[in-house]
Amino acid sequence: MQQLDLLILGAGWTSTFLIPLCQSRNISFAATTRDGRKVAGASTTPWSFNPDESATAEKNQFSQLPLAKNILITFPLTGKGQSKTVVEGYRRAQGNKADTARFVQFGSSGIWQIPQQTIWVSRRSPYNTESPRAIAEDELLGLGGAVLNLAGLWGGERQPKNWVGRVAKSKDDVKSKKSLHMVHGQDVARAVLAALKDWDKAKGQRWMVTDGFVYDWWALMAGWADVKAESEGVKDEEPSDQARWVLELMNEERVWALPRSMEALGRCYFGREFWDHFGLVPLKARI
Fold first, then answer.
1. Any alpha helices (H) in 95-234, and if so which ranges?
2. Of 29, 211, 219, 283, whose CA is between 20 and 30 Å from 58?
């Protein structure tokens, strides 16, 4: 059996960027989806993870999957035992050649959304160790894998300006909005391949992946004042409610200009470290 470079477990939105990048770099890959649909024009294997299945059987849920040097887990693993099931189950099903298989898991930067001692938060900052996702991430790290904790994802059909009406329905909603951290799907794809290429740096580590910016929700809402007019193709439309509320709040809270200071934003992710370690620069920084 030919060993592939990469197996993507759960080819969703991020894979619409990762698959074309693999193709352009001549990286052999396979991918799974629940229904076997095509993703970015590539065929996938119908497969879904069963966290309740024992990983000890020689024939298990991973037996139908191809042999690969690297396995990317894109779907959320939660609680104790799931990461172990994936790693040990895959290795047992694939035999001796899979003993050195390397596992990367997508995690969420939300694990750091707890009270911090400083406004700056890095991958080494305290995190919510009771979070089911953090528990699964810690387990994978203990098994020698790597975790990429992704900031908010954007790119393609995922455009942050279209989220404003959902996340801020009232002036109070706007008032509560502070910092925002994002990363483009293309840079997520580059981050995955960089971690696999330089595995000695990546393994056993939790990495925070952002585009290096700390966005101010107020500045974004004010900058997207015409989002309704733009979407409806009209001119001379009134600014959005969110933009009006931002200006009112600036007056009330004596904010002279946007963006607000880092101190005002409260939680700021140190998004440079990953790129520094792997010698890269984000291609799609700044939404």
1. 132-142, 164-167, 171-176, 185-197, 199-202, 217-223, 227-232
2. 29
| Gap between the Cα atoms of 168 and 177, Å rounded | 8
Pairing of the two strands 215-216 and 179-180 = antiparallel
- At 130-150, the pLDDT tens digits run 999 999 999 999 999 999 999
Chain centroid to CA 224: how far? 24
Tell me, what amino acid is at 220? L
User: Within a 10 A sphere around the Cβ of 118, how many other Cβ atoms?
Assistant: 9
Strand ranges (E), the chain? 4-9, 29-33, 45-46, 68-73, 102-108, 120-121, 146-150, 152-154, 179-180, 182-184, 206-209, 215-216, 268-269
Domain ranges, residue 195: 4-158+181-213+268-278
Please indicate, yes or no, whether the overall pTM of this predicted structure exceeds 0.90: yes
Q: Could you tell me if 203 and 144 are in contact, meaning their C-beta atoms sit under 8 angstroms apart?
A: yes
Stated length of the chain: 287
174 inside domain: no
Number of domains composing the chain: 1
